Each structure stands twice: as structure tokens, then as C-alpha cells.
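In this section we walk through a basic example: taking a raw amino acid sequence and producing a predicted 3D structure, encoded as C-alpha cells. The instruction is simple. Fold the sequence below.
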Amino acid sequence: MTPRARVYDNILETVGDTPVVKINRLAPEGVHMYVKCEYFNPLSSVKDRLAVAVITDAERRGILTPGSGQTVIEATSGNTGIAVAMVCAQRGYKCVITMAEPFSIERRKIMRMLGAKVIVTPKAGKGTGMVAKAQELAAKHGWFFCQQFENEANPAYHASTTGPEILRDFAGKRLDYFVTGYGTGGTFQGVARVLKEARPDTKVVLLEPEAAALISSGIKSERNPDGSATASHPAFSPHPVQGWTPDFIPLVLENGMNMNLYDELVKIEGGDAVKTAQALAQKEGIFTGISGGATFAGALKVAQSAPKGSTILAMLPDTSERYMSTPLYETINADMNDEELEIAKSTPSFQLLPGEEPTLKVT
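The resulting C-alpha cell sequence is shown next.
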């Protein structure tokens, strides 16, 4: 394996250029499946791209000045907030994040570790509540609001980085399907634009949760003048795929839909997302979160009807390690189970006595 022969001037230079990895044990016979592992980004998610895009775009437009100590605010389920906190730390900005109560506590701690202030909003307000709080705080204090759901710098960055990376990695090879879920719609819109221009035969498959099938409902989100949603979408209900599908249709996503960039829309059950993320870890050694499990579950659905010889690429947005307090880890114990205890007893030395085994908790 050839190592990266570079010395980087700062952490932001390591964002992007993530690897595509072949699936060997979970792919059906006769279908070639690959995943693009976005957890190779420095803060372990695809949202590192978004944060670099939005903040450097604001710098180019003179809204932000590196090292100025200005405050950047964003509303997020976690990964964007972590990425924004990283970029702010490197560029010399203060960072405030608003985040709805249900999202994993690991994410709050990581953001605070990076120096961000995290404002937790009530569960009842859902995604629209955390966005409204960020809008309110930005207006009151004069802070720069990233607006990931409306900011066109988001898909533009994917069109200039993620999409070309895929074209490079599949140059001279088949690429029949590109499969992705949506959070803001930035990955979908940016990558699909590039694929539709360069490889129009590649089918783009868009995924959404069964419990929150907003696009499938055919109901549009009503919008404020800045493009943000005015209210929670009537088709939304809570689902376990954190990072996918807020309780409104983002403007970035809607713009991509208006460009006719997807060929198929597939709904994914939350339980399948969890099981598939666990299968990727245990059968392939690929360590992704619930959204990655959901995306690959969608890719497996595509594979069921894909012609033999097809090549399918699925996006894996983030790392499994960000989900230890979520349903992804409900069946994963910290303490030894009966089988492990029997293995321990099979040789005489260094055995924990009854009652001595520690109980570990994520707090």
C-alpha cells in the first residue's frame, strides 16, 4: 500500500479524497458492490466537506475573516456541528451549535471537546426547532449562520470534490448505480449533477426512511424568504437514522429534485439500517453508523433487481463510534456474555471471580 506522501499545513487539507472499498462477503453473487467511506475524513463524516465549503465560501465573500474570533452558528443533528466546530477551531472562530435533544450525547461531547458551545433544544421542536433557535440567536447576536440546508456552497463543494473523486476511481470501469440517502441533500445534488453530466447511464438511487418518507408523500415544505422551512413536514415521524431526513425537505434537496437528478426513490426501515450497519462491521470490518447501514441496506435492495454484472456504489456518511448511546449498540454489551465467560474459563489463569466483572457505561 502506498502511503500518502504529504505533509499537510493544517487539518482541513485532509478533508476529502476518501477511499472506495469493495464489498466481498455481503454482496450478492454476480453483482459488484462498493462503498465510499466518508469516515476517513478527519472528523469522521461526510459533513467535514460541508463545513469547509460553507465557511471558506463565507471567507471568500468577506463575511468571515480567519482569526477574527467571529462567531459561527449552525443547527445540526451532530455531524455537521462536529465538522463546523473543527473548522472554527482551525480558522480562529467561536462556534455555537443548536441541536435537538434526541441526538446522541457522544456528538455533544465531541463538539464541546472541539471548543463549541452546544445549545440543546427540546425534543418536541424537532429539526425545525433547532433551526429556529439558531436563526434567533444569529439575528440577536449578529453571528454567521451556516444554513447548511439552504446554502448552495454545500452541493457545489460535492460537485467539485466528491463527484470528481468517484469519476476518477471508476474511470474505465462500470458504474451502474450510485446510492445515497439525504440529510441536507448536498451529497445527492452535488454528486448527481456530476454523474449525470459525465456518466448519464449511471442510475442515481435516493433513499429516505420508511417512517419519514417526505419525498414519497408528494407534499412540499412551505418556506420562509431565506428558503428555510416554515414548519415540520406532515409526513415526518421520528426515525433512528440520525443525520438522514430532518422534519422538513431542505431547500438544497428540493433544488436537486427539481433538476431531475434521481432515477429511483427507495424507502428504508430503521431496523434494517441498524442490522446492516452491524453486518458491515462483523462481515466486512467496515465500521459505519446507522446512516451508513441504511444506505447500504438500500444498495442491497437495488442489488436484488440489478442485472448480473452491475456495479453499485453506496455512500457511507460516518463512523459507528458516534452511535454508542443509540439503538445501534443496544445489543452490544460491555460485559462478557456466557460464551466469553466459558472461553475465559477454558484456561486456568487470570479469570475474573464472580461479581468482579466491571460494568461499563457510556455517559
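Looking at the output, two observations stand out. The two ends are 38 Å apart (CA to CA). The chain is about 35% helix and 15% strand. In the next section we compare this with other chains.
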